[in-house]
């Protein structure tokens, strides 16, 4: 018969393309990737031996007989192996761990093994095929077994996919079925056109589809630097953790570029990209092959595994040395400031999630330090991170059931000689981990954004407190509520504040909103807009912690503040020496000169109290008069002192 092997040549080309692409990018030696690689090798062997054998059989008189025998035997060996390895791939997709399925793999290999023995015996039995100088190639009586075994594996794959369809995604299941379906189609075509050899074509088409949908590594490659991305790092860590002990010898270094936005702003996006490419190239050069990942836009991760995990200090030194120098891209130069976070796998920290979380935490901590600062996430830091997570959880819980406690600290009005003001201060005394102080939980509430909703609940509680003061006929000017800088990111802030005040039916001028200079620095325009809007309702605005920030005096003046509160540190400093006394006195004079009231905070002693009265402050807050009190006690205090 005249064989048509053109489709087999096409199949070989398709397979080679898939193989080249499959080699690109990082290659995690996972069970699934290894089997896919096996699929490529076996299909390649089957097709090429098929082509070679067919050509040789066509020219059997010119080629040594033993060579035709050898190549044809290889072809017959590899054909059922194609079915077997494809079945293994289906298994690898369903059960990612090799150790789980070792037995299935061995049992499934038995028919192929028996067939292998039959193929070797074929030299004597000639039951599968025979090649002789007289008659050329002749099919044996049992040749059908070769194809039966192949189709047996196809059927097994279909059954496995159907049986485990809940464990795999619908899309993956459809893809896995393409091989058996293509194989069946080929049988049909083969029946009508027996001279066209199509088996390899079916195999490589199926592998192409599998590659495109299930094995494509392009989605794990960063488009800009061409190194693997964050997802591939997660895959790699996942792989290391599956193989048990391997993850224990792992270290991750994350290099974060600080203020990289400034490079983009100064030179444009394209030059910024070129800097990133250059850094990526440098990191790839100094680190072990395949260990560098683009972790985030301006962050790179280095995964050191096995023997390399002990050399973190060496790699960090290399990075620091280079990062201290100037970078150049074409005609552009720039120093690039960095923060470096490092984590090593320990008994307390060995899951993928905790490793990633802790290295991100280490980067955040490193950013608090100076340029090129390195932060190692040790067990102490891990405990700190765990505590932060617990506190965030408690905050979420308290936000949900609105169970924050509010304390109130009376503020003394110097001219009226009464406590006409009160500052509301949040407390979390009752938590599963004991009392937590505002200095600890407020920054966490800010980092997590919880502070925003929390403030509305606080305001509501404060309104209810004011209501009880008014119901008791206690004279009061207003209650101070603290607003975090983050609050000003809310577009509907004014509306929400008014809604809460109206709902509680209290006069709006009994509320004073206190915020710090950092709010003005972060969002000057929205603060000015909000303050002006609040003024129209009679709500007062107060600047808190004056003397701790760096705000511009003219900006402070442009906001309709009712009062400025001097920070405790400034009050305490004023007692130190003559120079400080003069300075604080003048600051107070300047604010009073433009019609603002001045509040002194942190007054603890009689001497401090007399000094600030002497300075001419309008209000005094401090332990000298009262510590913050629970609402009932605060109400009693006011009743008692404001008679
Ligand atoms: P802050 O707004 O400057 O509040 C004044 C802090 O000084 C309070 O600490 C108060 O207890 C303390 N203090 C008052 N008098 C004295 C004194 O004589 N001596 C000393 N050593 N301290 C005094 P607290 O309650 O621990 O609050 C700390 C910070 O937490 C507050 O500083 C504020 O920034 C934040 N915070 C507290 N409650 C809230 C709230 O409801 N919302 C927001 N956004 N922040 C709050
Ligand atoms: Ca305050
Ligand atoms: Ca303050």
Describe, in plain words, how this protein is organized in 3D.
This protein is of the alpha/beta class and 643 residues long. It contains 24 helices and 18 strands. The mean pLDDT is 91. One calcium ion binds next to loops.
| Rounded mean pLDDT score | 91
CATH homology superfamily of the largest domain: EAL domain
Q: According to CATH, what is the class of the largest domain? A: Alpha Beta
Task: Provide the low-confidence segments as ranges.
Answer: none
Cofactors and ligands present? ligand C2E, calcium ion
Q: What is the overall shape?
A: elongated
Radius of gyration: 38 Å
Estimated helix fraction: 55-70%
Spatial gap, N to C terminus: 118 Å
Strand content: 5-15%
Structurally, how many domains make up the residues? 3
Q: What is the CATH-assigned architecture of the largest domain?
A: Alpha-Beta Barrel
Features:
alpha/beta; TIM Barrel; Rhopdopsin 7-helix transmembrane proteins; Alpha-Beta Plaits; binds calcium ion; binds ligand C2E; 3 domains; 643 residues; 5-stranded mixed beta sheet
Topology:
Blueprint (H helix, E strand, L loop, with lengths): L5 H18 L7 H28 L6 H30 L3 H28 L3 E4 L3 E4 L3 H21 L6 H7 L1 H15 L6 H17 L14 H13 L7 E8 L2 H8 L1 H18 L5 E5 L2 E7 L6 H12 L3 E3 L2 E3 L3 E7 L7 H17 L4 E5 L1 H23 L3 E9 L4 E10 L10 H11 L1 H22 L6 E5 L10 H12 L6 E5 L1 H6 L1 H13 L3 E7 L6 H6 L4 E4 L1 H6 L4 H16 L3 E4 L5 H10 L3 E2 L8 E2 H11 L2
Parallel strand pairs: 8-9, 11-12, 12-13, 13-14, 14-15, 15-16, 16-17
Antiparallel strand pairs: 1-2, 3-5, 3-8, 4-5, 6-7, 10-11, 10-17, 10-18
Helix pairs in contact: 1-2, 1-8, 2-3, 2-8, 3-4, 3-5, 5-7, 7-8, 10-11, 14-15, 14-16, 15-16, 16-17
Bound molecules: ligand C2E and calcium ion (2 copies).
